[in-house]
Amino acid sequence: MTSCPRRAVVLFVAFTLAGLAGCDEELVCPSGETACGKRCVSLAFDEANCGGCDVVCGPLEACGGGACACASGIGSCGGSCIDLARDPAHCGACDVACGAGQLCSTAGGASGCVASCGEGRSTCAGACVELGSDPYHCGACGRRCAQGESCRAGECRAEIYVACYASGDVRPVDAALGGAGAPISASGSPQALDVTDLAIYTANGFPAGVGVAPLGAAAARVTPLAGDDVQDVLVHRGAVLASNSGSGTLVALDATGGFRDEVAIPVDQPNPHGIAVHGGTAYVALFGRSRGADLPPTGQAIARIDVERCLDAGARISGATSPPTCAIAGTPIDLNAVPGAAPEGGFPFPSQALAIGSRVFVTLSALAYADCGGGFFDWCRPAGSGRLAVVDTAAGDAVSIVDLGAGCGNPGDLAAAGDTLWVSCGSFTFPRLAPGALVPVAIGGAPSVGSPVSMPPGFVPGKLAFCGGTGYVTDQASGAVLRFDPVGRTVEDPVTVCPTVFFAWAADVACSE
Q1: The domain containing residue 98 runs over which residues?
Q2: Which of 205, 203, 222, 204 lies closest to 213 in space, CA to CA?
Q3: Fewer CB atoms inside 10 Å of the end CB: C or N, the chain?
Q4: Residues 170/193, Cβ–Cβ less than 8 Å
Q5: Cα 157 from Cα 181, distance rounded (Å)
Q6: pLDDT, tens only, 406-423
């Protein structure tokens, strides 16, 4: 009988978890983090463990570089951190005290003493505040947001969230990609994200499932699914869709993660990936599967699933005792039968999908067979330029193909900024057709491909998001994320967000609503 090791690494990879099941666990943290109690923390910016375990910063302090200092917007009076915007004993300036019964208010943009708070403002510790937007009294008196978070609608929120696969968590960051609060455990290995004004949703690769973390929660609650690979998650009309690659199904959940329905996709080895919804139909990119070097791959298609009734929590069939179910809506679109979907010698492997107006855009990698990982990866060599499949829902789901050009060897994610659709193009395979790039496609009318925007050396662009007019791109080869300007078409240096646990992977990025 093999003895069981006592060490468990915080990494949700199948062989690791299987080997450690049932064993006593000793927390081993990602590089750059330290175990404090039962949590891995960054001593550089954790306000409860600043520079050392259990070193707690004061209520008006923030942790930066492993030392506590007055937080942003907080003044210093006599060596003490003072909230000059809210403190009635130091209202607007040190030692400017309000009179008896007066309150400190920042109404009009300047701090001053007032007799009472105006309409829509509340009294908290001698100050007039707006609970819906005040970062020191967010939603309730004394509820402070973490450094880098903002208060919106009475909830503390980071600007950006990044799914970190190797460390098994979601990292909140500000618009400049600086830390904004503690990591949120995904309770699995997150490889896709969606964020609403109430919760963070993760598609977990292993163990397979969908995680739901209400804003402010330290960890997600997971709805486990069969198989070993959930590729995408999309919140639509208050319900949740997930592509379960391991079982070849589309799963429908309610907003809390409660199970509604699961639809088997009628394609041989479908391997569902990205999801887009137009009207009541979900369009699911089916990456398909390899059958080895001697047979063509199978399953490359776009499935259409009627999700109208199964997503509507109020929809019930008269006399029915169970919720209505999702259903297959017509035959899947066979991409191998679409002219121009791949160059000669390659096959069209669809990855991500996005609905814009009446059109659904799906990225297609044009791949040929090659052993790119000791038999674990095949059909992985770019056979030519990547494509974009455009499904016109107003024309009976007619499909047209856009060639993304030689600057895009392996298209993955896509996101829109105004009338421009941006496609991330990168590949781990060698030789590459082209270095990593972002390719713009004007979609105001007929799609028109623009010049690629090159990435820094070694950066393999993965998932995309536009937040506040700025683009954010994850690196498939590391835990880094970079920002780019879609107007000036310039990129910044990558910033490491996800820590290393044997490896690092910034799997997805999403904006806070």
Answers
A1: 75-146
A2: 222
A3: N
A4: yes
A5: 9
A6: 888 889 999 999 999 999
